[in-house]
Amino acid sequence: MADRVVLAYSGGLDTSVAISWIGKETGKEVVAVAIDLGQGGEDMEVVRQRALDCGAVESVVVDARDEFADEYCLPTIQANALYMDRYPLVSAISRPLIVKHIVKAARDHGGTVVSHGCTGKGNDQVRFEVGFGALAPDLEVIAPVRDYAWTREKAISFAEENNIPINVTKRSPFSIDQNVWGRAVETGFLEDLWNAPTKDVYDYTQDPTLNWNSPDELIISFEAGKPVAIDGKSVTVLEAIQELNKRAGAQGVGRLDVVEDRLVGIKSREVYEAPGAMVLINAHQELEHVTLERELGRYKRQMEQRWSELVYDGLWFSPLKTALDAFVQKTQERVTGDIRLFLHGGAITVNGRRSSESLYDFNLATYDEGDTFDQSYAKGFVNIHGLSSKVAAKRDLGL
């Protein structure tokens, strides 16, 4: 079998043109691999056939929807992962899964080179190539858009000159990446930070005022940090995300307008839609407030930001991320119970919590009859707790 290039194929202009371009430049056959992450849009069989029509010797579609939900979205929920306290890592968590399947395809189809369609300004080039380095350091990487300074105009000209069968006349004003966990929109008029998003930016969510008179209340059940039921009906993780995308999306929940710090050192403006993700993370956080011991909860909240940074920065397969995963799993052992949420006008409001693993003791918390908290302990505790500050204050004030 001849040496082959295995291309992460999206079905869009750049990766479609890349099939022919890579073949001409390298003399190698191209295998196109598209991953179904629940992104919707075009039928994946249409995408598969397009790759063949563009010159791929083989075209593979991998249905990774449940794998993505169980092995990438679920850890993100359990880590309450929000980069810069806002972004639920919509694109970042999909890249290591794509890398995994590209590497597998390279092994299965005789690939010695892997390729992606990322630019040199974004985070995804790092996520792909660091991932390839972690899983298959022997593979060479080609990045045509970045390494050969492709523009859309150059790609269109190449497609026309080489009779590549792809429609390039319809152009979205935005750059969009989406999967079942959410949707990321950038470029176009959004690059002016003062411009407000218009309604055509959104697809996963409706105008928050549209269903103003019909709010939605629901109960999410967790077992060991995993969502297992909605309103008492058993669901897989994928089904939970899909249902909450619909129900929360109908309430305008999950719209995020973020200026974020990219790994390459620039700031970028991104508009995200992640209705299911934001509901699940909010519910999970609230259940942890009920079930995690105070010091464990405090430490976990510090760790969550570091976990998010590692994933955003393309270090999913790093030793530190692996070690933090083990910590997160330990913390989830008693995160079991139900959270009731109210979805309305783009907002998520928790209004009920119950758990067999709850650390909330009514008799300790109540101020009414039945209070079992011994208040006589408090005076000595307060004096000792503040003693070091008091001693320092006397010194500093010359008392």
Automatic annotation (TrEMBL):
Phosphoprotein in keyword set: no
InterPro entries xref list: Arginosuc_syn_C (IPR048268), Arginosuc_syn_N (IPR048267), Arginosuc_synth (IPR001518), Arginosuc_synth_CS (IPR018223), Arginosuc_synth_type_1_subfam (IPR023434), AS_cat/multimer_dom_body (IPR024074), Rossmann-like_a/b/a_fold (IPR014729)
Documented EC number(s): 6.3.4.5
Pathway: Amino-acid biosynthesis; L-arginine biosynthesis; L-arginine from L-ornithine and carbamoyl phosphate: step 2/3
Positions bound to ATP: A8, Y9, S10, G11, G12, L13, D14, T15, S16, G117
Domain Arginosuccinate synthase-like N-terminal: 4-165
Ligand binding (L-aspartate): T119, N123, D124
Domain of life of the native organism: Bacteria
Binding site for L-citrulline: Y87, N123, R127, S175, E260, Y272
Domain Arginosuccinate synthase C-terminal: 174-391
EC top class, as a word: ligase
Reaction(s) catalysed by this chain's protein: L-citrulline + L-aspartate + ATP = 2-(N(omega)-L-arginino)succinate + AMP + diphosphate + H(+)
UniProt-annotated location(s): Cytoplasm
GO molecular function: argininosuccinate synthase activity; ATP binding
Quaternary context: Homotetramer.
UniProt record similarity statement: Belongs to the argininosuccinate synthase family. Type 1 subfamily.
PANTHER family, sorted: ARGININOSUCCINATE SYNTHASE
Stored NCBIfam families: argG, PRK00509.1
Record protein name field: Argininosuccinate synthase
Organism the protein comes from: Rhodococcus xishaensis
Gene symbol of the encoding locus: argG
